[in-house]
Every structure is written in C-alpha cells, then in structure tokens.
Amino acid sequence: MRKIDYHLHTRFSFDSEANPESYIQKAIKDGFDEICFTDHRDFDYPIDPFELDLSSYFPTMEALRDQYANQIKVKIGVEMGLDTDHIQEINDFVASAPFDFVIGSIHVIHHTEFYYGEYFKNKTKEEAHKEFFLETLKCVQTFDCFNILGHLDYIMRYGPYTDKSVDHQACQDIIDEILLTLIKKGKGIEVNTSGYKVNKTCGFPNFDIIKRYYELGGRIVTVGSDSHVVETVGSHVEDVLKAYQKIGFEDVTTFTKRKKDS
Ligand SMILES: [Zn+2]
Ligand SMILES: [Zn+2]
C-alpha cells in the first residue's frame, strides 16, 4: 500500500499557522509516497472565518509541488464544509479552482457548530448524534463535488456529555445508508487519525464502519492525519494501512483534478 497523508491543514486555514514546506520535508523524511494539502473552506461557519484565499493558496502550493516533484507527490485539495443551507456557493467554490481532491466534511448544521457547542444545546447525546448522522446522509445525497467523506464520527470529540462515545448500533441504519450512498456515487471515505487521540486504537470513523463500507462494496479509501502542526503529519498512518490491508483493500486511492489516479 502506498503511504499517504491526505488531510493536512496549513497557515492557509484559519486554525493553523503551519508552514506547508515543513510538512513536505517531514513527509519525505518519513518515507511518504504522496501527501495532499486540504485547507479549510466553510461557508457561514459561526464565529470563525474559515475562508481560503485561492489567489495565494494555489501559487504557493504549486511552487512547492514542483520544487519537490522528484522526492514526493504533492496534491492540492480542500476540506470543504458540506452544508445543505449553502449548496450553490459550495458547488461554485469547488468548481472555481483546479483542486486535486475534495474532502466533504460536516462542521456546521443549520448555522450551529460543534466546537463551541451551540449545536448541542437542548439535545440529549442520542438526539445530537442521530441528527449528525441524518444530516451527514443528507449531505452525501445532496452533494457531488467531493471525493471522500471526512471524519465520520468526529461529533464524538465534542458535546457536553461525560461519555461522548457514539452508539453506532442505534444509528446503524442511517450509517448504512450513508455508506451505500457513497458507494453508489463512486465516493470514498477516510480514516482520520486525529481520532486516535480519543479512541486510542482507531480513528474517525472506527474500523467496523470501514469494514462495513468494504462489505457493502466500497473500495475507495484515503487516510489523513488532519494535522494543523508539523509534528502530527503522518501520525498513525501505518496503523490504518495495516488495518485496510486486513479488511481487504488493495491500496489507498489518490486523486488528481478530482479524478481517481489509475
Ligand atoms: Zn474537519
Ligand atoms: Zn481537517
């Protein structure tokens, strides 16, 4: 399996100050075949401005990609916040630039976000999680502009609950519908290794869900560290690749201009 890190944030994201070149150098040192920058863009994120300045993003990343071309493959992508209140803007934004790869992530539901916690107000954990999965389903049904679904399960990092864990069984029918929709539309799923901080032995989502995606016929997987600092670039990628192999995947999928590399 090729060693990739397909979820990286740099100083082009509001919540990172990292220098993209340092990511490339670390990835080369650690023997990676390919990485993809996926800085944030969310429309209407409450409180924080998750904008992406494409006029400096592309020239900077393209120059780095070319500079290091004989040592590592570097792709230029985006983590697009999917939000059914902003369908047109999101589709237009993705179409407006030559992204290699688009992660579709749910960060905002009806103008409320998870990080500061507005979304969880007046909801039990069960209600909050169910709505998250239902909204994720709606997004994967509605949008076509993404390649893979980002960090399913990431909701479990937030919320005012002592036990934040997700009861997957209670939402299994919705999760199956999400996976089947992804498969039908030729979309993939990532394991986001930032989840190891919470889950210890797996990322977001866990390997049961990845196995389910495989059993239902899905073959498109990526892995990403969701790094916002250089130290975490590539973390737990090898653990995920081993698990992918055990499940039956032959390789990870990589992308150029939003199409699968053959
Ligand atoms: Zn995200
Ligand atoms: Zn991210």
List the helices and strands and how they pair.
Layout: E1 4-8, H1 20-29, E2 34-41, H2 54-67, E3 73-81, H3 87-95, E4 101-105, E5 108-109, E6 112-113, H4 125-142, E7 148-149, H5 172-184, E8 188-192, H6 196-199, H7 207-215, E9 221-224, H8 237-247, E10 255-256, E11 259-260
One zinc ion binds at residues 79, 105, 107, 150-151.
- Global outline: globular
The overall number of domains is 1
- Major sheet: arrangement of strands: 1-2-3-4-7-8-9
**Topology, number of strands:** 11
CATH topology: TIM Barrel
What's the total helix number? 8
Low-confidence stretches: none
Q: What structural class do the secondary elements suggest?
A: alpha/beta
What is the C-alpha radius of gyration, as a whole number of Å? 17 Å
Keywords: Amino-acid biosynthesis, Histidine biosynthesis, Hydrolase
Pathway: Amino-acid biosynthesis; L-histidine biosynthesis; L-histidine from 5-phospho-alpha-D-ribose 1-diphosphate: step 8/9
EC number: 3.1.3.15
GO biological process, one term: L-histidine biosynthetic process
